[in-house]
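Q: Can someone sanity-check these two? First one:
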Amino acid sequence: MWGACMHAVLKHLGPGIYEYGWNLNLEIPREDILGAISGVTIKTARPITVHAVDFQKWRSFEEYWADTSNNTRRNAKRAEAGSFKIVTRANSRGLLHLGAVVRLRASMYERKGIKFHQFRALMSYVVDHLIAADYRITAIASDGTRPLAAFTGCEFGSHTYYLAGGSQSNNNGIAWYLQKVMLQRAWNRTDGKAKFVMGHVDYATHNEDTGGGLLRARRAINVSEYATSIVTFVYKEDSSEQT
């Protein structure tokens, strides 16, 4: 019924240029169904792949974690032996963490040789956080004197969405341990019946050599791939639809 529902929505909204899709959307590509709707002309359809951990593939979090890469588990275990604390904030309280998130993200990108505009990123994170504060979650791991790793994301419905993170160099595995903590939080919140959405990749343009090891890091925690697309299209009612 998706096509019929979208047709009804378009008739209600009226003629215009629309975009459907999102870079964290787990839906199937919709361009074929959209193109079959009366009055719709597809302009562009950009295929992307979304990566998410589907917890339902494992019977317990321990079984899932044992199935991650040896390097991931080794780094997280090394961190557990150290002295640090993790502070998690939900809702608007997470705004207090965003400065540290940006600084740690900048540090990570600097190591990888990727440009990062701190002020622009901070403004974007603040606005996004204020718009949907009820769904936001942040976490900072620190050694008591300075932040070492950060996470910010959304808990929407049953799924958890990773939005941004970063870490200091030589954090002794704390970044991986923080990732484990957030994954386990997502598992516990839904009893393993949800997905942890890590982000998207455009295989047509992605270069792993200059992409900071994005795919390697995601595959280390056993993401699944979901093919989707972002579609722009024109809708124009024809005379047979008008009432």
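And here is the second, same format, sequence then tokens:
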Amino acid sequence: MNLPRTCAVLFVDVTGSTRLYEELGDEQAHARIAQRLGRIELAAGVYGGRIVKRLGDGLMCAFAEADAAVRAAHAMQATGLKQIRGSAIGIHVGCHYGPVLERAGDLYGDCVNVAARIAGLAKTGQVVVTREVVDRLGETLRQSVRRLGHATVKGRHEPVELLEYVWEAGRADELTLIRQSVPGERVTRLRILSAGRERWLDGAGPFTLGRDAASDFVVGDREASRRHAHVERRRDAFVLVDHSANGTYVAMADETERCLRREELVLRARGRIALGRPTTDANATVLEFQCE
């Protein structure tokens, strides 16, 4: 398949292979994994994908269209999780769409690097994609996508937006309608409010959160670290960065709450933040934020 200059790059990896080798031995484990990878290759081929290369217990694939890549990822996951003496041969998938360079049959460039990073963040049974993929999906597939948050990628100044394609029908309650992104959206300032205290951020240096008395916003909860997290402005967005032991919980509007552990998240629209505890915990100090 001759790829266009832009395409969807998909990485798929088998998870749980180390335990499988320990429990079954090298020969049997290798045979089981090869069988699963064979079914994955077939799924890629059905949707016009090209196997660029094999990477240990995984594959790098390329698709001319984002729709084809996501449908193939669905088929790959649907080949099923086989239970072998308690060990699951699951897979996790990551996909990004963008420009690529092709040399000697291999692919290079930012798109490949992002796709590999996204695949590394996906959990067993997940298909994690970027906003660039979702914006190119048809309406039917886009209805099966939910937001996860943002992640940093080496070599990129801006965080990458992560979304999950939910291929399992039983998880429909996790879905929210994902519309195509609107170019030119800008955030000029961020409002943070808690227990009557209000602060406005416009990007003048990092805004620190924690138990330390020197923090810009002091939280007395013992579950919070002294230097727990900070918010900084990056171009037209405000990014929350966690440094803590117990994590920073963030619940944005219409999205599932997530816990950041030494991670970053772009704050969008409005939501709630709690240091060291879920925002629903009765003992949590909750900070409300709103982007304007």
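A (reply): Looked at the second one. The chain has two domains: 6-174, 190-291. The chain has six helices and 21 strands.
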